Amino acid sequence: MWQCEVRDVLSQQELEIALEDKPSDMKDEEWKKINRQACSTIRLCLAKDQKYSVMRETSAKELWQKLEEKYMTKSLENLIYLKKKLFRFEYRQGISMTEHLDDFNKIIADLMNIDVKIDDEDKALLLLNSLPDSYDHFTHTLINRKTEVKYDVVSAALMNNEYWKKDKQAHKDSSSDALTNKQNGSQDESKASGKLKQVEFDVIPVKLDDDYTNEEETPVDVISVELEGDDTSEEETPAQEPPQEQTDSIAASRPKRNI
């Protein structure tokens, strides 16, 4: 990526010609001037600790070759490392699809820098293979009844799928917020109009036996229980006559105890 950016800068300044051999129709003074400007531009794009090895270089082409030899070594070790990284590449949970595609393209670019070319269909299949199991239906739909798969089509479909998911989630969140605001507004209106529902409880006074001084008056909460038996050890009290408006009970003539 650094190499691509520096080439773009040199192209805008019309200095990219310095990376090639000197044209036969160009004067030496003009060629030296172009090389000084190109070397200056390249060094300005380097970090301070990376400039020491090329700080006195006056040929842009030689400077460029030294940087390639140092940072783009085409060794077997780098080849094995990058291919292993490509074949084991998987989607990292929690990142966006844009970041996933960027990571994949970085590996492809590194392989291209060491003269390793990968077919377009192989790139597409490797990208689909890196997706998690939740994309199985998406993958099956994408490659169904097709004889070939193109990398640009797969990457574009993945981006569109992510945009669709984001729009769906945003619509769901907005609907939830609208429903919550509506409920809060209804509660606020009820409070403002004073129409809150009030609950009242009926209080029934309960009197104790000691509060009744009239023996003839029977409290509502007192229930008389009749007991029959031969036990005469306890003192028996005469039964109270029921009120006149009530009919005589079956046990009206029997002795009763007050419990």
Counted beta strands: 0
Q: Characterize the biggest β-sheet.
A: none
What is the rounded Rg?
48 Å
Total DSSP helices = 8
Please state roughly what percent of the residues sit in beta strands, choosing from under 5%, 5-15%, 15-25%, 25-35%, 35-45% or over 45%. under 5%
So what's the overall shape?
elongated
Structure description:
With 259 residues, the protein is mainly alpha-helical. The protein contains eight helices and no strands. Helix 2 runs parallel beside helix 3. The longest helix is centred in the middle third of the chain and has 43 residues. The radius of gyration is 48 Å and the shape is elongated. The protein starts with a helix and ends in a 66-residue tail after the last helix. About 2% of the residues have low confidence.
Please describe the structure with a list of short key phrases separated by commas or semicolons:
259 residues; mainly alpha
In brief:
This protein is mostly helical and 259 residues long. The protein has eight helices and no strands. Helix 4 (76-87) runs antiparallel to helix 5 and helix 6 (120-129) packs parallel to helix 8 (151-193).
Question: How would the blueprint of this fold be written?
Answer:
Elements: H1 2-12, H2 28-44, H3 60-71, H4 76-87, H5 97-113, H6 120-129, H7 136-143, H8 151-193
Helix pairs in contact: 2-3, 4-5, 6-8
